[in-house]
């Protein structure tokens, strides 16, 4: 059942109903500034089990616990100086921190996939913040796509992916950022597990050099090759489309309706990436050809998602 914010008592009432759904162990479609999430009470293993089931996600892939801010995060995870510094600089916002879980664990074992660590993030979207305030506890929310599909960046795409499994759905409009949060592990030396909306340079400016994620998929389980994949094959670094191909261009002069940013702006390209991949895929092309994207700043995260969409190991 969807809950348009402007019906039956307005946005406040829709948020109260969504919080009640979480308390009842039901799932909620939740807008964030990065991508739409499918949310559940992180402390409730039955609700989390239904979340994995709705996504078709392998249960070894742990979930992010969404919290209202640093104070709430410190009830869930153990922060050191660097972690606090990053949270103070980038929260609320698109940065996820992997930290030791605080005992007794307030995020269920299932949501942590059995690890003694927990990923925490305070999202910036006002509707996400309102729901977290109304609910009062950590909320597990993977991207609302079915496993292996591109993350939804519009309300409509989220409903299409996992809306059938949700008891409530909050419409927050198109996602401002359009790429998932950056995931940084602070377990030993700081490590970039997933490039994302906060760039490597922005993080390194706060805490110094970041180590690369290990290839070991158990330590960085989000880095699976088949991730973010549309139905059509994806061809990277294409100068131009071949017959039958859809084309995701970049910069002025690129043809077609799926130009990621006519002005060559990486922020705009990030915001458009998943929506354009979806729209291009819907034309049932022979393949989706993608123009080269510069690898600096946000380009690192864009190219990471594109390599996964093309099926290359990250
Ligand atoms: O922007 C986002 O982060 C979105 C919105 C909804 O907040 N959420 C999202 O969640 O992208 P998800 O579940 O699709 O990705 C979470 C990533 C995965 O790569 C997962 O492996 C990693 O975080 N992760 C979660 N807990 C972890 C842990 N304890 N150790 C290492 N990686 C972890
Ligand atoms: Mg995801």
UniProtKB/TrEMBL annotation:
Residues 12-198 form the YrdC-like domain. This is Threonylcarbamoyl-AMP synthase. Belongs to the SUA5 family. Coiled coil: none annotated. Signal peptide: none annotated. Gene3D superfamilies: DHBP synthase, Threonylcarbamoyl-AMP synthase, C-terminal domain. PROSITE patterns: YRDC. The keyword tRNA processing applies. It comes from Phenylobacterium terrae. Keywords: ATP-binding, Cytoplasm, Nucleotide-binding, Nucleotidyltransferase, Transferase, tRNA processing. Required for the formation of a threonylcarbamoyl group on adenosine at position 37 (t(6)A37) in tRNAs that read codons beginning with adenine. It is found in: Cytoplasm. It comes from the Bacteria. PANTHER family: SUA5, THREONYLCARBAMOYL-AMP SYNTHASE. It catalyses: L-threonine + hydrogencarbonate + ATP = L-threonylcarbamoyladenylate + diphosphate + H2O. Its EC number is 2.7.7.87. The keyword ATP-binding applies.
